[in-house]
Amino acid sequence: MIATESLSKRFPRVTALDRLSVAVGPGVTGLVGANGAGKSTLIKILLGLSPASEGRAEVLGLDVATKGPAIRERVGYMPEHDCLPPDVSATEFVVHMARMSGLPPTAARERTADTLRHVGLYEERYRPIGGYSTGMKQRVKLAQALVHDPQLVFLDEPTNGLDPVGRDEMLGLIRRIHTDFGISVLVTSHLLGELERTCDHVIVVDGGKLLRSSSTTDFTQITTTLAIEVTDTDDHPDGTRAVRDALHARGVDTHDNSGLPGAGHILLLTAPGEETYDLVRDVVAELGLGLVRMEQRRHHIAEVFRDSDEQRKEAVGHGG
Ligand SMILES: Nc1ncnc2c1ncn2[C@@H]1O[C@H](COP(=O)(O)OP(=O)(O)OP(=O)(O)O)[C@@H](O)[C@H]1O
Asked: Which domain of life is it from (predicted)?
């Protein structure tokens, strides 16, 4: 669907993309990175709206440098910021966008009605957009990206500004864009946790560089952090410490979480696979302690960055 090769974008004072090479296949793909990581810049280059400084990219086999209009015919785009006219209704706006994409008047009206229903806007669709909630505006932006039946859509931070319920509804809608209509999706977010649940594949960028690109299952396995809490006993008055030492003896290191609340009673460790769960269970049982909880922690993108920082430091350390 998308392929970039050593793609860079330099602004006078900042390098927004730094030799990014990445491939995106069909399905739902998440593009994760902190604010300023280069996500929106990448989308604009892929749409042929902004030229790259170096490198190349193709979308649906079309070169972004020369085939921008053809790409935009086949790709839908939901921009990040509020860009809706307040005085017109959702129906009027989406019909207008459908007509701009080349649909004849009747088809534009029919597709608009179907798409607005699909994104969950019903009677409200005849009211001016200015009176809509953030969630409703996000749905209008999504509808205009889908109305011309694209092969692929770019959704830039579609959950921004939504409360947890609105966020879950939006993520469900995004998943259905692919399952119900077969449209592939590239969706950006600064929260890895929400994309883990929605996407088949996740790409992480930081400072315009590719940090990681892998299927969501691999990703979760790589980054799963387990939180463990145990009871104390007469034999082990500090149960947490006993488990930590026993895990260390078996080659499993726990994270330094001394800065976090409740740190003294909670052990955090990276669990690369199922065997780590079994090991923790066995260690706790051998020590005769009670396991109060063992749960997977949801990740914030910062944890991925921290892990990669640690890897970088290790690499530097080993190198010299
Ligand atoms: N037109 C521009 N002129 C100068 N700098 C820009 C321009 N557009 C983006 N940048 C800079 O490029 C970097 C990447 O911005 P970009 O908007 O792509 O990030 P992002 O990952 O989409 O983050 P956000 O979600 O906050 O938009 C930032 O440092 C930003 O300030």
From this structure: Bacteria
